[in-house]
Specification:
Elements: H1 2-20, H2 22-39, H3 43-48, H4 58-69, E1 77-78, H5 88-98, H6 110-123, H7 133-142, H8 149-165, H9 168-178, E2 185-186, H10 188-196, H11 205-213, H12 228-243
Parallel strand pairs: 1-2
Helix pairs in contact: 5-11, 5-12, 7-8, 7-9, 11-12
């Protein structure tokens, strides 16, 4: 009986404290929730990526669920290709297009981040992104396409960890093998076979530029469809590669 009374006393005191400090209680709850979200991040999975290729990614599952919700047929096509088999032109085209400082940054491009904020504030919309290849990989593997602060925090934590766990070459190999290149098309090997009828190891410089050009929006921009935008974007990538001696 004494134990029951002791528990009741603690409960009353706690409840009274919460009523007097509602805002502080809310802060404690939110902090605890954020800490729990962080400690349950897939750090172990990241370590396994040193030697093991990932299976189905978070984005693949999200795309399949979207298709089911919309009553559409969804078939995932992905074929893995080793980094050593991917032409340098394809690698350079993707880096020039998506993350020009990939080899030198530690996961974040702070200059692009600042430029993105300034432009988005000026135009009042999300006109420019600033995600590095590593950040894009993290989102594809483990997160979602939503844009909430907690997801962004998870992205930053995992980006920091991946950059300190995997080599740059491995990060790029994973990225080139899991990103979307059209409805149900994942990875550069599947994309090359779909759009050009050959292995990615045989991609030409121009074909590599076309593939890199559609990465920002692979469902709207079609590799095998001639459009003024795709032509301009491809030529811009080729020009940047030439200017950098690539």
């Amino acid at each position: 009986m004494a134990r029951y009374e002791w528990i009741q006393r603690i409960w009353k005191v706690s409840f009274a404290w919460v009523r007097r400090h509602k805002f502080l209680t809310l802060i404690f709850i939110l902090t605890g929730w954020i800490v729990l979200e962080i400690v349950t991040l897939p750090f172990g999975d990241v370590r396994r990526l040193k030697t093991a290729n990932p299976g189905e990614t978070a984005f693949m599952r999200e795309h399949e669920q979207q298709a089911i919700a919309e009553g559409k047929h969804f078939k995932k096509i992905q074929r893995w290709i080793a980094f050593s088999a991917i032409p340098k032109d394809a690698i350079n085209a993707v880096i020039v297009s998506e993350d020009g400082t990939f080899w030198s940054h530690s996961g974040f491009d702070w200059f692009e981040f600042r430029e993105s904020i300034e432009r988005n504030m000026k135009e009042g919309r999300a006109a420019r992104g600033a995600s590095t290849i590593t950040q894009q990989l993290v989102k594809n593997l483990y997160l979602s396409s939503s844009k909430n602060p907690l997801r962004k925090l998870k992205e930053w934590m995992l980006t920091w960890y991946i950059e300190r766990t995997l080599s740059k070459q491995r990060i790029l190999e994973l990225y080139l093998n899991v990103i979307e290149w059209g409805w149900g098309i994942y990875g550069i090997e599947a994309a090359s076979q779909k759009y050009f009828g050959k292995s990615a190891s045989l991609l030409s410089r121009e074909e590599s530029a076309r593939l890199a050009a559609v990465i920002p929006n692979p469902r709207r921009l079609k590799v095998d469809r001639e459009t003024p935008y795709l032509e301009r974007r491809s030529q811009l990538i080729l020009s940047r590669m030439a200017a950098q001696g690539l």
